[in-house]
Amino acid sequence: MCRGGDRSARTHALALALTRSLIGSSFMKALQKTAPSFGVEFREVPRPVPRPGEALIEITAAGVCGTDVHIFEWSGGYEFMAPLLPLTLGHEFAGRVIDVAGDANGLAPGALVAVIPSAPCGSCAHCLSGAAESCERRSAKGTSADGGFAPWITAPVVNCLEAPNGVDDELAALAEPLTVAQEAVLKGGVTRGDRVLVIGPGTIGQAIALYARMAEAAEVVVVGKNDPLRFETLRALGFWDLVDIGDGDLETALASRFTSQKFDIIFEATGVPEVVQQSLTFLRKEGVLVVAGIHPRRASLDLTRLVRERHQIRGTQRAPRNVWPRVLDSLATEGERFRHMITHRMSLDRGVEALELARTRRASKIILSPVVRKRSS
Ligand SMILES: [Zn+2]
Ligand SMILES: [Zn+2]
């Protein structure tokens, strides 16, 4: 194994050969999307080799996300992936650094890291002008490049963030969805005393509720639809203002519970287009609606009302890089609270079963273990 720093390609090749001989075969089994239709396959693929500036990581925890479920079902929104298949899924992952090629930038083998799954291209006009967050040729592990549902992955050293003390691999694997939620809460501008409504009780909705509470919102109400398991998770996280709309619609369910008061900030984390218009009824004048779901269809909006109420609608997706250290800090201090979000832990070879559990909402957050770590370490 190497300790980083510049060295010849020959030395590096020798180090890799040594790593491989320690690990074994140059193949591994990964959970891949192979065709633009329903399903995934657990199949043998070549083990990745780090290029200069990359780390080789042994993945010990990888979260199953709603995105993975959409891609598994092929239910719309990810058609751009079709020409890139086969592709290993998974974008929420953490593990141990095995090797670093080229400049290690302080990253040592053995470090537990959370990996930022998306990387700017470095060569487009945005990247060259220093606005890498707006890069239009961004590569994203799990959707446009091979992801974390595999025992090993390579990632740019600059995308590997060392987990702080007290943060283990499964908590580090939560970092990615937590950054999405933290960014949504920052976009919404939640401040002390706000009344917050979160529509969608999944991982993102749960984490938005947690970060809204950490931002000292006075009230956080979470809405779901026939979702007993995820409501159970929310109760474990300390949320009791829960509204199950059952088989009815959002407007009727909320109207029966909240008559006069309106919400300052509403978060949409369902991916159901109709929810966007329905939720505006419950937004106060000049309130903010943050749309975080991935919507397979267009929504229709009453723009006259939007204008008269001076409502703000803000879209949010992945978080910029500066949100990651903030989230890792919150995991270091509130990790045990966040751990309640994890409802299932399974080995990677049960990945198809895991996707089915998530798809049928019999699980909230599932953590897959591509490589089973020794619990004592
Ligand atoms: Zn995700
Ligand atoms: Zn770029």
From TrEMBL:
One Pfam assignment? ADH_N
Family, similarity comment: Belongs to the zinc-containing alcohol dehydrogenase family.
Q: Name one GO molecular function term.
A: zinc ion binding
Please state what the protein is called: Alcohol dehydrogenase
The record's section on Gene3D superfamilies has: Medium-chain alcohol dehydrogenases, catalytic domain, NAD(P)-binding Rossmann-like Domain
Domain Alcohol dehydrogenase-like C-terminal: start-end pairs: 204-332
Reply yes or no: does the keyword RNA-binding apply: no
| Cofactors (names) | Zn(2+)
Task: Note the coiled coil stretches, chain numbering.
Answer: none
Q: Could you tell me which PROSITE patterns the record lists for this protein? A: ADH_ZINC
* UniProt keyword Oxidoreductase, yes or no: yes
Q: Which UniProt keywords apply?
A: Metal-binding, Oxidoreductase, Zinc
Q: Which InterPro entries match?
A: ADH-like_C, ADH-like_N, ADH_Zn_CS, GroES-like_sf, NAD(P)-bd_dom_sf, Zn_alcohol_dh
Alcohol dehydrogenase-like N-terminal domain location, by residue? 52-164
SUPFAM superfamilies (alphabetical): GroES-like, NAD(P)-binding Rossmann-fold domains
